[in-house]
Design goal:
heterodimer, A: 254 residues, alpha+beta, 4 strands, 6% strand, elongated, B: 209 residues, 3-stranded antiparallel beta sheet, two-stranded antiparallel ribbon, 8 helices
């Protein structure tokens, strides 16, 4: 399954290294380095050489790789500096933190391998494919709206926007992300909400559309559902937005 | 009710249910037949299926019992139309999922700290596939969302519950033939666990040999 990597660079995978920790572990393994006693000069040199290679192949590097390069150089400089001879000798090995991170990452990488093995087995195990019965068979049958129905509903909302507001140029920065946050907050407290109540005609077209886009995204993520109860053959109820069980409720603050 | 009848009834219930069904629920459906008898019947069924080269088996998954096929016959099952086989998860996906599974509830920055890379895309995929869900917000600056695993996660990996997760490997596995610098060995007696109470897996972690 494709993942959209949201880092700012295009990651063409060179030997499958998604991040600096992976690369370091690879180098450690290749060179049979003892992870508890990393020869920092060697590893830094090799790491930087790898980055050079990636750059010469015109692969843009994720920021994290560069941060790690800086970290390695910093550690190396610390190991090279003469020890301050006083009572307050810093006992901590400058490599300590890096080793901790590598070990921790490796734990989860190993765990991921075990997951992969389990996944392989369980992909081949099937259960009775009963026709999907909704848990709420007793309730009114809820129809999930398709995008076109949603657009129609949006249009109705936009029709109610007062004419003046149409032309209003707003200096407010509109962000779909903010509206997504808004939706998630709202629905962490409420189970359901009428579609229409999400929008206020006074807000103007732009805000309404941004809110709508945010709603589409949240629905796509499976956190909310937009439904319309079908009351009878002819009649349909008002459109409602429901929270799904993928969206937890607000954690009570401690 | 005779044990034979009970066993047959439960077998049928497992078949029809499709989804894992708990002992409690079975007991309820069987009009209050005791837990012990239900468990015994389940054990009988499980052994029976296992010993007799059947295509089906009875497993404990996601808090209940389920009747499923055995992996050996998978090639044939896949040839049925309407059967969708799940796409495998990618390595980054599995890593992020492992972190969520063992550290839940966990925030995205916490996951990224461990993996060393951005995890937004990976998490979105896991959410899409219903393997993780948002379980709340951490009450710190920025109120980041926290993630946890779902029932579907348990089903996907055939786990009865979270405590069945394989123990995370010891952090301080020390290769015998190598000498270490003493400072470096300070690495972790035990890892900081999540603030909220989680499943027993955390206790079954590095502290225990």
């Amino acid at each position: 399954m494709e993942e959209t990597d949201q880092s700012n660079s295009y990651q063409v995978k060179l030997e499958g290294f998604e991040g600096p920790l992976e690369l370091l572990l690879h180098l450690i393994k290749e060179n049979r380095i003892n992870i508890y006693d990393i020869p920092i000069a060697l590893i830094t040199r090799q790491y930087l050489a790898y980055l050079d290679l990636m750059q010469s192949l015109n692969l843009a590097l994720a920021g994290e790789f560069l941060v790690m390069a800086a970290t390695l150089l910093l550690i190396k400089s610390r190991t090279l500096l003469p020890q301050v001879s006083s009572e307050e000798i810093d006992p901590e090995d400058p490599r300590h933190d890096l080793v901790r991170r590598l070990l921790e990452y490796r734990r989860f990488r190993d765990a991921a391998d075990e997951f992969e093995a389990r996944e392989a087995i369980w992909r081949d195990i099937f259960r009775h494919q009963a026709p999907q019965e909704e848990e709420n068979a007793n309730e009114v049958y809820l129809v999930d709206l398709n995008p076109f129905d949603l657009l129609t509903a949006l249009q109705k909302v936009l029709e109610r926007v007062p004419k003046e507001k149409d032309m209003l140029i707003t200096t407010e920065v509109l962000s779909v992300k903010d509206k997504i946050q808004f939706l998630l907050d709202r629905f962490s407290q409420e189970e359901s909400l009428e579609f229409d109540l999400l929008f206020s005609p006074k807000e103007g077209r732009a805000i309404i559309i941004v809110t709508f886009l945010a709603l589409l995204e949240v629905v796509r993520l499976g956190l909310l559902r937009v439904v319309q109860p079908s009351l009878s053959e002819e009649e349909e109820g008002t459109i409602i937005i429901l929270r799904t069980e993928n969206l937890g409720t607000t954690v009570a603050s401690e | 009710m005779e044990e034979i009848e009970l066993r047959a009834a439960i077998e049928g219930l497992l078949f029809v249910s499709g989804e894992p069904i708990s002992v409690e629920r079975l007991s309820e459906v069987m009009e209050g037949v005791g837990r012990d008898r239900v468990l015994a019947a389940l054990a009988d069924l499980e052994v029976g299926y296992r010993q007799a080269d059947r295509g089906l088996q009875i497993v404990q998954v996601s808090g209940g019992y389920q009747m499923v096929t055995r992996p050996e016959i998978a090639p044939w099952i896949k040839r049925l139309e309407r059967i969708r086989v799940a796409t495998r998860l990618s390595k980054p996906g599995l890593e992020a999922l492992a972190i969520v599974a063992y550290r839940q509830p966990v925030t995205r920055p916490e996951i990224e700290e461990i993996r060393g890379v951005d995890c937004a895309g990976v998490l979105r995929t896991l959410l899409d596939r219903r393997l993780v869900k948002i379980v709340g917000r951490k009450e710190i600056a920025g109120r980041p969302m926290m993630y946890g695993t779902t029932r579907d996660f348990l089903q996907y990996f055939g786990l009865p519950d979270l405590s069945a997760l394989p123990t995370l490997k010891e952090l301080s596995e020390i290769p015998t033939e190598v000498e270490m610098s003493p400072e470096v060995v300070q690495v972790e007696e035990g890892l900081p666990g999540p603030e909220a109470a989680v499943d027993p897996v955390e206790q079954a972690g590095p502290e225990h040999a």
